[in-house]
Every structure is written in C-alpha cells, then in structure tokens.
Task: inverse folding
C-alpha cells in the first residue's frame, strides 16, 4: 500500500497545510481519525440511538482532515435520513483506505530519511 493506491477520498494537502507541514502532527491526527472511526462505525445504523450525533461529529472531523466526500455524505444523510447511511459507510471506508495508504507511504519515506544510529548498524566483521 502506498501513495499510488490513494483513491482521492482525502485531500492530504489540506491537512498538511493545516498542520503547518509537520509530519508528526499529521500522522497523529490521522491515527486519531482511524481510532475514532472504529468507535463511530457501529453507531452509523438507524437502530443506534445516537446515529445522528455520530453523523454530525464525523462530518466535522472528516472535513478537518480533508475527507470532504465523507463530510458531504454525512451532510446528505443528515438532510435525508438513515437511508443514506450506506453512502456514509462507503465514504468512511474510502477515507480510511486512503489514510492507511498515506500513512504507509509516510512510514516508508521516514525509513529512507532516517539512517540507523551507529549502535544499530550491523558490523560486517561479525557476520
């Protein structure tokens, strides 16, 4: 999974600009988004008591991280009702896929940028 796998569900440039291009902040925000999504997803069904509250929360948070299609799907469901929750689930899944691909790519890039410390290097003499 890498940046070439991105589907366009999240505008990472939006989040990067908002975080002043601090990659640690971006990674932390995306990690929190993923954790929160795991809590929200079960609430996104018409039988759940707080589904509208969850929907409103997801709408705001998704727009903050750049998942505008998810925010739009939430707004649509708020306006039209529970029948649109399948659209929200699809948009949430697409956003989470993009977040995973982005974070994976960032992790790969950090490996290239950070050489091993001297005490972590392998001594060819000991092989």
Result:
């Amino acid at each position: 999974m890498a940046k070439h796998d991105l589907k366009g569900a999240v505008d990472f440039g939006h989040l990067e600009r908002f975080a002043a291009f601090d990659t640690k902040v971006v990674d932390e925000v995306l990690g929190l988004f993923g954790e929160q999504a795991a809590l929200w997803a079960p609430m996104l069904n018409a039988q759940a008591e707080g589904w509208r509250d969850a929907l409103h929360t997801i709408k705001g948070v998704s727009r903050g991280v750049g998942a505008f299609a998810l925010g739009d799907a939430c707004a649509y469901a708020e306006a039209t009702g529970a029948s649109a929750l399948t659209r929200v689930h699809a948009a949430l899944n697409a956003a989470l896929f993009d977040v995973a691909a982005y974070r994976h790519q960032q992790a790969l890039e950090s490996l290239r940028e950070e050489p091993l410390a001297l005490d972590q290097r392998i001594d060819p003499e000991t092989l």
